[in-house]
Specification:
By secondary structure, this protein is α+β, with helices and mostly antiparallel strands. 21% of the residues lie in helices and 28% in strands. The protein has a single domain, classed as Archaeosine Trna-guanine Transglycosylase, Chain: A, domain 4. The C terminus is likely disordered. The radius of gyration is 16 Å and the shape is globular. The protein has five helices and eight strands. The longest helix has 16 residues.
């Protein structure tokens, strides 16, 4: 069992598009999410990383690592990846998620049916016990309670200052929720950059 994560912690499962993105997370301690594709709420305790087909035979279609989320800010892609100033999305806004060290799961979580995904909300309990990516999703009315907690975090996220390490204990054992590909229903953006 991984001692760093509590069973009630909220986890956002995110895609690492390429091995280069894994190295950025491991060495530089950050992960990026394009603002226009970001999930509704990014104020979570941990990020878990789904590795698609680009990770090769031994590491593709699975979750092997997670990391504590330590903060976030809004910036342009060109500020994040300076060696690609002419990239077609260089001027687009991205969330830069600051991470703690990557932590290996005791056992990888394998994608059987779901090989393509964007974001999934889950909890530490589900992350530590899942064997398949599908096991991270809960299909019950309990999702509404998780969604309410995520909304509260989003509202409180507007009050964060860079460097603050505030925790929000929530009784969320056994909750999970699929994120949508929009950030917030009314278009408001919550970030440290506000």
């Amino acid at each position: 069992m991984n001692p760093n994560i509590r069973l009630s912690d909220i986890v956002l499962v995110s895609v690492l598009p390429k091995p280069k993105d894994f190295e950025i997370a491991r060495v530089l301690g950050w992960y990026r999410i394009p603002l226009k594709f970001a999930p509704k709420v990014i104020e979570v305790d941990y990020l878990a990383f789904y590795q698609p087909g680009t990770f090769g035979e031994k590491h593709r279609w699975r979750i092997e690592y997670f990391a504590e989320m330590r903060g976030h800010e809004l910036c342009r892609r060109s500020e994040l990846i300076r060696d690609e100033p002419n990239h077609p999305r260089a001027d687009e806004e991205y969330f830069k998620i600051q991470l703690g060290p990557l932590i290996a799961l005791d056992q990888p979580i394998i994608a059987e049916k779901w090989k393509r995904l964007t974001f999934v909300y889950t909890t530490g309990s589900y992350l530590l016990s899942a064997k398949r990516v599908e096991d991270l999703v809960i299909k019950s009315e309990e999702r509404e309670l998780l969604w309410k907690s995520l909304r509260e975090r989003a509202a409180l996220g507007n009050r964060y200052q860079a460097g603050q390490a505030e925790t929000f204990p929530l009784p969320l054992d056994l909750f999970t929720f699929l994120a949508q590909n929009s950030f917030h229903e009314n278009g408001e953006v919550y970030s440290d950059a506000d």
